[in-house]
Design brief:
7-stranded mixed beta sheet; 38% helix; transferase; ATP-binding; Nucleotidyltransferase, domain 5; 12% strand; alpha+beta; single chain; ATP binding; disordered N terminus
């Protein structure tokens, strides 16, 4: 290492004094910290070779390869790199947000961990530098966007029979349940969480957890208004049949769950304004989508059922899987005691992929060893066996959701291809307009198609970038590809279906 010391930049000179020894300090920090980390040897492989020299550093100032690569990736001088790493407050504000978005996951992890270092405790430190405030780097910034709120009242909870029963009954404003029976053919959909039947009557969707069945019963009682029947669906239609019938004093009419879901789907597709959409991975927006039969419906609750729908009265269950929302919730409950799937989703919004193995973890540094993107997911929770990897609730929740979603995206693609469908609609409480679930399902399906197109796959750019480009190019060029689509009211298809059946029975 050269002996020269560079003068402190003009910005923030009071932070470190007249002269800046951040080069040596930062090198010591990196060497000491990275040496013990399992990801240290792989971090440099993610770094692009954008610059040949470190800006502003004397030629004789030699750095270790890993440190040099990290500094080059920041596209700034060593002083600004130190600020980003939390070693000193030197021009951190000059780092543009646009530079952050292209950081790789491993680099992001490195920066976050280095930001927690105490420079005063490092060997070779000759002075104490004030750490810069660390802004968390997030390559999936769009996941933080506020979700679209339903125009409905929602009691916090999950899915199940209690949900369907409350949804079936609904909350009718202005007229009672029977009054809507002659208006159903003129029904139009209003907002994200209500049905407007005749201009002054709205039906709102409400859900309760099944463990709150008594609360549900108390909620329903004052709203019965002389009603003699309630149509219900799902396993709880059997489990809670006697309790509901006795305490509500009405006849409980059990409806087949799959037929109710299909009925609700058809009602929504045919009566709603642009109910179907794709999730845009680049912007997090909703892209309106048209549908054509046949199509697949992947209904995701605790478990998963997959239906092929050829029309209103022509459908069949073609597959299913036990890996669904209950899997993610169960794992998170076991690890950190989460109480609801909504809690898992909220935690995952701030999570990273630090617990998952990627392609580079498996193949190492050999050039040309694979055509797959180095950051492609290889094994969910694959790093958990390493006791040195820190585990946060947020990262655990993110990995759990991504594990389930990628498998559902892949399974949906394979079945759609096998059965000649171009549209796969994902619904159920697992989706419920959550950006994180829609994004990861979409990624899983797009990768399945991207992987089959050998000429489209490359190891030179990140996986997320490639699937975003593939989605955009396919849309712009009109290429046929299987689309992962989502639906307004997706968590209430069964409820809409049993409501429709109930109205028909009243005619």
């Amino acid at each position: 290492m050269g002996s020269k010391k560079r003068p402190c930049p003009t910005t923030n000179t009071d932070t470190v004094g007249a002269r800046y020894d951040g080069q040596a300090l930062l090198k010591a920090a990196l060497y000491k910290y990275l040496k013990a980390q399992p990801w240290a040897g792989k971090a440099a492989k993610y770094i692009r070779k954008a610059n040949q020299d470190i800006d502003g550093v004397e030629p004789e100032f030699k750095l270790d390869p890993l440190f040099a690569a990290l500094v080059k990736e920041l596209d700034r001088s060593a002083e600004l790199a130190a600020a980003e790493l939390g070693a000193a407050e030197l021009g951190a504000a000059e780092l543009g947000a646009s530079k952050r978005n292209r950081k790789d996951v491993v680099l992001e992890e490195s920066l976050a961990k280095l930001a927690k270092l105490d420079p005063a405790s490092l060997e070779g430190s000759s002075q104490v530098l004030k750490p810069a405030p660390m802004k968390r780097l997030n390559t999936n910034e769009w996941l933080k966007k506020s979700k679209v709120k339903d125009n409905s009242y929602e009691a916090k909870g999950g899915d199940g029979f209690a949900s369907r029963a409350a949804e079936d009954l609904g909350k009718v404003k202005g007229k009672d349940f029977r009054a809507a029976k002659n208006k159903k053919k003129r029904a139009s959909w209003k907002g994200a969480g209500s049905i407007d039947t005749d201009g002054d009557t709205e039906i709102h969707f409400i859900y309760f957890e099944t463990c709150r069945i008594l609360e549900l019963i108390e909620f329903i009682k004052p709203r019965l208004k002389g009603q003699a029947h309630i149509h219900v669906s799902g396993g709880g239609a059997y489990k809670f049949h006697d309790q509901l019938s006795q305490q509500l004093g009405v006849k409980i009419v059990k409806c087949d769950e799959m037929s109710s879901v299909v009925c609700g789907l058809i009602e929504t597709l045919e009566k709603a304004d642009t109910p179907l959409y794709q999730f845009d991975l680049s912007t997090g927006g909703r892209l309106p989508e048209h549908f054509q039969y046949p199509l697949l419906v992947v209904n995701i609750g605790s478990g998963v059922s997959i239906l092929k729908v050829n029309g209103a009265d022509d459908y069949s269950r073609i597959s299913g899987t036990c890996i669904g929302g209950g899997t993610a919730l169960g794992l998170c409950k076991l690890y950190f005691g989460t109480t609801s799937f909504e809690e898992v989703v909220e935690l995952s919004r701030n999570g990273k992929s630090s617990l998952d193995l990627t392609v580079i973890d498996l193949v190492g540094d050999s050039a040309g060893s694979t055509r797959l993107p180095p950051d492609l997911l290889s094994a969910s929770f694959g790093r958990l066996h390493n006791n040195t990897v820190p585990v946060s609730k947020e990262d655990f929740a993110f990995s759990a959701i991504r594990m389930v979603s990628y498998n559902l995206g892949y399974l949906g693609y394979l079945l759609a291809k096998l059965h000649g469908c171009q549209t796969v609609i994902y619904g159920g409480k697992y989706v419920s307009d959550h950006d994180i679930t829609m994004a990861t399902i979409t990624e899983g399906m797009l990768f399945s198609q991207l992987y089959e197109a050998d000429d489209e796959m490359t190891s030179s750019t990140s996986f997320v970038h490639q699937v975003r480009r593939f989605q955009k190019d396919s849309e712009e060029q009109g290429k046929p590809f299987i689309k992962a689509c989502f639906l307004r009211h997706d968590g209430y298809l069964g409820a809409i279906g049993v409501l429709s059946k109930g109205l028909k029975c009243l005619d």
